[in-house]
């Protein structure tokens, strides 16, 4: 799932 | 975005603003470890490489800019400001923080989610953030007398990490795909480093005595 590579947390 | 993460980001922002306020108003950085501030500047510089490439949200971009500008300006103040630099106690702030950078980088090369430059730098920033507070905690142990603003600064940093752990627990239960062991373990290690400081902070607050850490 591509969710893992874009780190949406600061 | 959930309430724990928003509260965590706001607490983190408050910790940086408390520090900037302290340095800017009383023109002093007594009790503050420059080494920890340099490590934080490096953490943000290596974590926010995607600042201009991946747009996530206005909030995300804005906060990244604030953290970058504030962390680098704190380092600038302590190193170059003609008045503030005089209050920097370099004889006490002796933690060899460069010894933290290399192991974190090597660990990031070995344990990461994806072997790409961006991912390795991001993982490096996670590991480095976990240990970045060490020079500051060592300095607090040495100087013993902790002034209120410095105590509040470290307290807010610990609170931000604790709120982030609640955020991860919340996301784990609400987002099926959300599994980031590396983030969780390094975040947990970082929060545990604050545990003993928290203990003494609450003791001093409860007994209404000046915060002192045991030598």
From TrEMBL, chain B:
Bilayer disposition of the protein: Multi-pass membrane protein
Domain of life: Eukaryota
Compartments where found: Endoplasmic reticulum membrane
Entry keyword set: Endoplasmic reticulum, ER-Golgi transport, Membrane, Protein transport, Receptor, Transmembrane, Transmembrane helix, Transport
GO BP: any one term: protein retention in ER lumen
Keyword Protein transport annotated: yes
Chain ranges passing through the membrane: 55-78, 98-115, 121-140, 152-170, 182-202
Pfam families tied to this protein: ER_lumen_recept
Principal subcellular localisation of the protein: endoplasmic reticulum
Signal peptide (UniProt feature, chain positions): none
Family: Belongs to the ERD2 family.
Protein name, per record: ER lumen protein-retaining receptor
Source species: Olea europaea subsp. europaea
Organism placement in taxonomy: Eukaryota, Viridiplantae, Streptophyta, Embryophyta, Tracheophyta
């Amino acid at each position: 799932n591509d969710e893992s590579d874009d780190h949406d947390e600061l | 975005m959930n309430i724990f993460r928003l509260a965590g980001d706001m607490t983190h922002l408050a910790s940086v603003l408390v520090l900037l306020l302290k340095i800017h108003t009383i023109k002093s950085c007594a009790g503050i470890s420059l080494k920890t501030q340099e490590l934080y500047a490096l953490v943000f510089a290596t974590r926010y490489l995607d600042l201009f490439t991946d747009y996530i949200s206005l909030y995300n971009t804005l906060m990244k800019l604030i953290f970058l500008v504030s962390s680098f300006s704190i380092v600038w103040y302590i190193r170059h400001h003609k008045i503030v630099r005089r209050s920097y106690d370099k004889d006490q702030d002796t933690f060899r923080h460069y010894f933290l950078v290399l192991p974190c980088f090597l660990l990031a090369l070995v344990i990461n989610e994806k072997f790409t430059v961006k991912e390795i730098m991001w993982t490096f920033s996670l590991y480095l953030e976990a240990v970045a507070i060490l020079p500051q905690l060592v300095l607090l142990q040495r100087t013993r007398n902790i002034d209120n603003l410095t105590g509040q600064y470290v307290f807010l940093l610990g609170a931000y990490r604790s709120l982030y752990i609640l955020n991860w627990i919340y996301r784990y239960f609400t987002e099926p795909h959300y599994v980031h062991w590396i983030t969780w373990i390094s975040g947990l290690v970082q929060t545990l480093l604050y545990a003993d400081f928290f203990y003494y902070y609450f003791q001093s607050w409860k007994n209404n005595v000046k915060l002192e850490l045991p030598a």
